[in-house]
Specification:
By secondary structure, the protein is α+β, with helices and mostly antiparallel strands. It is 12% helix and 26% strand. It has a 5-stranded antiparallel sheet with strand order 1-9-5-4-2. The protein has a 4-stranded antiparallel sheet with strand order 3-11-10-7, with no helix packed on it. A two-stranded antiparallel sheet has the order 6-8. It binds copper (II) ion.
């Protein structure tokens, strides 16, 4: 598992945006070994939403509403109009890659970010707890998993990001599991600058600031 930050306008950022644009507008024939094209080919599978296929979403934050896919619950820390994009992609090696990009957030600030189980809703609670590959048997709706054996960035999808001077940032992670019969429903941005990892605190990241529903969920 790797978790990395990028807080500047780098080549990986441009490559990610190229993949995002390509995934939206292009369907390219299969059979090319180039990784970017492999993600584009996966986008074709997304049109029939199977849990193992690519999950993708991109939108700008609005106030919560019946049709809103990307919402803010805190307009100071996650302003209306901020953009969020996420792509979750299975790989042939039995791992899953996730990439996240934001713009329009506060500059030079960390934000804890995770995949949650349900779609975004009118209230921040709607997204449910963190998506876990192996579900913590001790977790309840009132007391979500805080056991580092389960609440960790190898069993959950953490995409903590740090913004640059313009409020933009990207993050990526690779987790050692594939999405089978379950898949996350949203990406939630939290108030804490990074996700806690200590026993009893693991996975905690403060108030929920914004949420992006994953397409097809
Ligand atoms: Cu979270």
């Amino acid at each position: 598992m790797q978790l990395s930050w990028s807080n500047h306008s780098s080549i990986p950022w441009r490559r990610f945006m190229a993949i995002v644009v390509g995934a939206v507008v292009v369907v390219t024939p299969l059979g090319c070994a180039y990784r970017g094209v492999g993600m584009v080919a996966s986008a074709a599978a997304y049109t029939s939403p199977k849990p193992a296929s690519l999950l993708f979403s991109s939108d700008t934050l609005t106030m919560p509403g019946p049709a809103s896919k990307a919402v803010t619950y805190n307009r100071e820390l996650a302003p209306i109009g901020a953009a969020m994009t996420v792509a979750v992609t299975p790989s042939s090696e039995g791992v899953t890659r996730a990439e996240f990009a934001v713009s329009g957030l506060l500059p030079n600030r960390g934000y804890a970010v995770h995949a949650h189980t349900k779609a975004c809703g009118a209230t921040a609670d709607a997204a449910g707890p963190h998506f876990q590959n192996r579900i913590d048997p001790a977790a309840t709706p009132q007391a979500p998993s805080s056991n580092p054996e389960y609440a960790n960035p190898s069993n959950e999808i953490w995409l903590d990001v740090r913004t640059d001077a313009t409020g933009a940032g990207t993050s990526r992670t690779t987790v050692p599991f594939v999405l089978t019969d379950r898949a996350p429903g949203s990406i939630v941005v939290h108030e804490a600058m990074q996700t806690a990892t200590d026993p009893g605190q693991a996975g905690k990241a403060g108030a929920r600031l914004a949420c992006l529903t994953l397409a097809g969920r």
